[in-house]
Design a protein that fits this description.
seven-stranded antiparallel beta sheet; 16 strands; 29% strand; alpha+beta; 20% helix; four-stranded antiparallel beta sheet; globular; 279 residues
Length: 279
């Protein structure tokens, strides 16, 4: 890889170029880290049109010191079924036959979620995505700055915000298995003095709304949903083009996508998950 251009997004639709990364220089890496700290994500492009996706992601992960790639244990028994290869990356693209995953092999719109459905909060700290081939129409990436929105909620209604930290607050469900597999925990928690999230609003979530906290928690969830809708300063929609990469601070922002129409392989995404944060 000879050079990489990093971009970040500071509004709902515009991309702002940061710099070109020439192998051996450090400034672009520092700027990428800064963009992730500020926005929770960064978009980057690669000048070499022939650079393989996995080589790109491996080098970016190495420069960001993300450590070894992580395969969630739920996928380990049948990695090929979910597009995982032996190097730990998984391919996400429309397929001819269903793999049982609600979104991996389809063009359906996906609501906001954090990667690592059944993982403890904060474990999957960073997601790297390479858009090898964008859909001919639709398939925009949506990003919800969940921790920033939660911080806003804490400042305006602390009781609502506190209800989302209960150990029984949010159950996430891996629907690709029979029976579905579940994991319960807080939607937001402080880890090392910083707020982290496992927010989900994509049909894989069950909120605990029974008991004394039920009404308060329901109001909190609805408040967060309002903050994630179009027009909110906490929401971004990115029409990411082909041959473009995305770094997501997965325990800070949630992401989703708009619906798209494409044949098998018509939208091709390579993903790597990591347990280290972008420092």
């Amino acid at each position: 890889m000879t050079s990489v251009s990093f971009l970040h997004t500071d509004s709902r639709t515009s991309e702002v170029p940061i710099t070109a990364w020439h192998t051996g220089t450090r400034a672009p890496v520092q700027r990428l880290r800064s963009a992730c700290r500020t926005h929770g994500f960064a978009v980057f492009t690669v000048a070499d049109p022939a650079a393989p996706a996995r080589q790109i992601l491996t080098e970016v992960a190495d420069r960001l010191d993300l450590g070894a790639i992580h395969i969630p244990p739920v996928y380990a028994p049948e990695p090929g079924r979910f597009g995982y290869s032996t190097d730990g990356f998984n391919t996400i693209a429309p397929t001819v036959t269903a793999d049982g995953h609600r979104y991996f092999g389809t063009g359906a719109a996906q609501g906001f979620h954090t990667d690592g459905t059944l993982e403890p909060i904060g474990l999957v700290a960073t997601s790297l995505l390479w858009f090898e081939r964008a859909a001919p129409g639709g398939g925009h990436t949506t990003i919800f700055d969940a921790v920033a929105a939660y911080t806003h909620l804490r400042s305006t209604d602390p009781a609502l915000a506190q209800s989302l930290t209960g150990m029984d607050a949010l159950t996430r469900v891996a629907t690709a298995f029979t029976p579905p597999r579940k994991a319960t925990g807080p939607a937001f928690a402080q880890i090392g003095g910083r707020w982290r999230t496992r927010w989900a609003d994509d049909g894989t979530e069950i909120w605990q709304l029974a008991g004394d906290l039920g009404a308060v928690r329901a109001a909190a969830v609805e408040s967060m949903r309002r903050l994630s809708r179009p027009g909110s300063p906490f929401r971004h929609e990115l029409p990411i083009p082909s041959r473009t990469g995305l770094v997501l601070c997965n325990s800070v922002v949630a992401h989703g996508r708009t619906a798209f129409c494409a044949g098998p392989g018509g939208r091709l995404l390579i993903r790597g998950l990591y347990t280290r944060e972008v420092a």
